[in-house]
Automatic annotation (TrEMBL):
GO MF term (any one): ATP binding
Keyword Repeat: yes
Any Gene Ontology biological process: defense response to other organism
Descriptive protein name: NB-ARC domain-containing protein
Residues of the Disease resistance N-terminal domain: 5-83
Record domain Disease resistance protein winged helix: where: 408-451
Alphabetized Gene3D superfamilies for the sequence: 1.20.5.4130, Helical domain of apoptotic protease-activating factors, P-loop containing nucleotide triphosphate hydrolases, Winged helix-like DNA-binding domain superfamily/Winged helix DNA-binding domain
Keywords: ATP-binding, Cytoplasm, Leucine-rich repeat, Nucleotide-binding, Plant defense, Repeat
Residues in NB-ARC domain copies: 156-323
Subcellular location: Cytoplasm
Pfam families (UniProt xref): NB-ARC, Rx_N, WHD_DRP
Similarity comment text for this entry: Belongs to the disease resistance NB-LRR family.
Amino acid sequence: MTDSAVDFFLDNLMQLINCDNELIHFERDQIKALYEELEFLRIFLRDSEENRYEQEKVKNLVAQIRDVACEAEVIIDSLILNAVMQNIGHVIDPSLELCGVMEEINSIKTEVLGIYERKRYDISVLQVRNSFNAGSSRANTPIVDEESVIGFNDEAVKIIDRLTGEKKQLDVISIIGMAGLGKTTLARKVYNDPFIVYHFHIRGWTYVSQVYRKRDILLGIISSVIQLTDEIYKMSNEKLCEMMKKRLMGKRYLIVLDDIWDIGAWNDLRRSFPNDNNGSRIVFTSRHKDVALLATPNKLLHRPHFLTQDESWNLLQKKVFREGSCPSELMDIGKKIAKNCGGLPLAIVVVAGLLAKKEKTQDWWDQVAQSVCSYIVSDPEQYTDTLALSYNHLPHHLKACFLYFGAFPEDYKISVRKLISLWIAQGFIRQNEEKSLEEVAEDYLMDLIDR
């Protein structure tokens, strides 16, 4: 069985879990448990893809995972056949064999966890990437760009240790700092860590923002546990609270509440989070220390540090040159630009987008160096100056498209198809003889994303 075959089998398992066929009602929990365990092993397959043949142990683990997935697929097929034929005659119960497969999976998982553990403390066999499984039933996982987490490793390890520590009571962990410091990026890095994926039965991520609606937060968390239906959307806030509490009860869960501005958002929700003394955790990100202190009983806060000059330069290089390296004639001015960003990741990423999209000449880089304000750190409100710098250098045809995002609420999920249709209706898209308006609009969007 290949990696793609494992993916196909996982997709089939998910369809089986979601189907309403009463014939497999009693085996549904076993199938769901199998899916969750194989999903974790699939992350390992993805993480080891580039260098699995360099380490004999990793190569053997990959082979074992493929074999056990193939064995599980045969048993599941037998289970379905048994369910269909149960009224015809006696059939051997394949669910007994499934227990044996689960034991094999647990044995493999123990070895995989050992590799991930060593990776966390820089004695790894693998250079593990943050993985994202869009089909996961356990969480709506935010994507994290590995390039943007430079300088966060030590803080991430501390937070992971708190999340997975021995404390059994429900614990609230706060990440605080000014805008652009990397709070959300740090939280994403931790959230997507393979050990965290394995440790928690349920993970959920929802955005709160300055102007929040309790209903949106509840739906965001519930969608991490089950698929939202029309019936759920019609429920009152009180019913949604009851449903969320019921779904989380008895499970070890991790919920991230990103970008909290007002303690009222936490007070509206706190009673809906059950405390079953099983090691569940809630993570806050906030710009406001007083909000975090009110929500965090132990008063222990995590604050991402400003990047050092070396870290700033490394991040700028990776964003501008991707896999390449900086030409020697731009090295000094590039380091000056990185230094002028004051260690603020957002400023570095925005400026890097500006440099990457223009011709890489010393004159242009000198202009950028003069424009980047070195006082950005001393006045937290001045981080917007960097965004203004980037906007001012946008091509004219992209400025209207960029500003149009302001028509949507903060942290709102925007359908690409809807956005493109609106841009076209507003007349923002230039006609192109070689491409349709929709294709041109997609090019505009990708250009903005790359910046």
